[in-house]
Fold:
Amino acid sequence: MSTLLRYYEYYQMQEMFDWLYQCSLANQTFGINLYDIIISENNILLAYRIIKSNTGSKTAGTDRQTIRDFTIKNQDEFIKEIRLAMKDYKPQTVRRVDIPKPNGKTRPLGIPTMRDRLIQQMIKQVLEPICEAKFYKHSYGFRPNRSTHHAIARCQFLMNQSTFHHVVDIDIQGFFDNVNHTKLLKQMYTIGIRDKRVLAIISKMLKAPIVRQGIPQKGTPQGAILSPLLSNIVLNDLDQWIASQWENFPTRRHYTKLNKYPALQQTKLKEMYIVRYADDFKIFTKNHKIAWKVFHAVEGYVKAHLKLNISKEKSKVTNLRRRSSEFLGFELKAIKKHKKYIARTSVSGKNKKIIREKIVRYLKTIQSSPT
Structure:
């Protein structure tokens, strides 16, 4: 049993989360009082326990408070304070730090105050089961019981079993910094989050002032607890749209899974499958011509529907039989073995360099420490 599941059961929230998941599956979330579930005593204590077990709990926000400042409080006093903050919610200023990237550039990271992190965790716990019921099955980033290994395994399956060796790479320009707030809130309502009080609080969170930058008009800060879930809500529309072009294409007649594939092959539909991890994704197709058609269609969809732009320099089509394609720190390539092509995955050159540098640092630490 995972640590998270033990927490859910200890604070008696697992049954509630399962119920929310089933309601979402049945499209019956309208009228559910999500706000009251979020501010329930057990949900607040669960959020506190999860935050406390995270190493980031020792990192202070602009108010210089860490989880220790909440630990010393009386439980009733603590719950009362959090509920009061939720009642008339006003986000506190977000601290911004720049994290170095391997390529020499930096990645901006937003660090909310501890109070806001607790509130975001409370909201995430309740919204996640509703969203999970609606998310596409082959999106793997920041989701329960999914990892990069599952995403790579899916890529290998498509390359081995179905000979999808032409891959479309789309890089969305500054995705986290450019998420359209109005569009996101509409997507949340559509996915099943219908409590207007909760949506109003999230709207305020998106407008939380950032040190030296002021109030953002777009984007969701990397580093915020809710950001990964919100990013999956935004891109779930893209997942479902691509799946609807082939995999989940609606037919007039009811087909079994085995009979649907040959029926679709008789149409003019283009066979394609998406594998996504957060804002990093690949679309697998059968040939070069289809791949470029998909490329232009996705570019148009991202711009028109998600109000985002793609990076022309980083977006491309790759024939995996000729060149490898990098995904989540691995290189994918189709190599010939006997009469067929099979998938070969290896650690990317960039990741090999990072691993070597880490080993060198560890060796130096060992050598410098006394025996």
